[in-house]
Amino acid sequence: ALGQTFQFQEHAFLQFLGLDKVPSPQKFQPVPYILKKIFHDQETAATIGISRDLCYVKELGVQGNILRLLPDQGFFLYSKNLPQASPCLQKLLYFNLSAVKDEERLTMAQLGLDLGPNTYYHLGPDLELVLSLVQEPHVWDRSIPKPGKMFVLQSVPWPQGVLHFNLLEVAKDWSNNPQKNLGLFLEILVKGQRDSGVNFQLEDTCARLRCSLHASLLVVTLNPKQCHSSSRKR
Amino acid sequence: RAAIPAPKVSCKNLCHRHQLFINFRDLGWHKWIIAPKGFMANYCHGDCPFSLTTSLNGSNYAFMQALMHAVDPAIPQAVCIPTKLSPISMLYQDNDDNVILRHYEDMVVDECGC
Question: Which residue of A has its CA nearest to B99?
């Protein structure tokens, strides 16, 4: 009976936390620096008794009381073509926004792409990153998946390190119309012709890029039900 | 005034804040909460005798209820409750591997009163 009471109360408390059931993650995901910083800033403020506006994320400069880091659930596309005739890297990025509740208002959606350390130092201005919005479902051509109609959002020449892209409007559209969420198409292209020796080095770099690439979407939302008083104050 | 008996309470039984550390491991929540490991939630407990309700951070209502209890014991005593609460932040992971940071108001009892 005690166990049942606890389970009932636990369920009620989880609902209060905004969860439907007890999460059981297989392993913990790495927590990015910015989330750790916001957490520790809040903890420090509470310890020394400073009251903070819980519905404004000072560190990011946006309104919001819930921060989510969504992992990329997409996949790489591999081409059997020769490297000099194909892109260095192609990947479909997909972020599941279903955790965002209807009553929450999106205030920030930032795509983070970590390309790994010093990837391009030996290549010079030869690579270009292109991020596109997939607007039609993927089609299959000779067992190679290709995304359908796309809209180029941004291109970055000589990409390296960690890149951030503002996807607020895109994420709002996905959140309002989940069927429109067909993901993003990430491509790293090789510019210009190369001799065979450089091509070998390029292949190596592209392989390392595929291993080190890490994508995530940082989403900040504001639940007006939990933020009415502080919003009025502001 | 003569009808109201003098309270017989010792200081340690008076309404005040008690320490309560909630360890998420005890609840099995350490499997999905990344941080903190637990927090000092505290709780309020103790008597609110009529003669001391004003000095125990008591409300006017508590004073009146304590007065009425002294006159008519069928009316319950004023109760010892949190009067100041503060928030905590929690970092956790859900079933979709999303890492979530949320702030929760009114999770820590800072002060108690009648």
Answer: A69
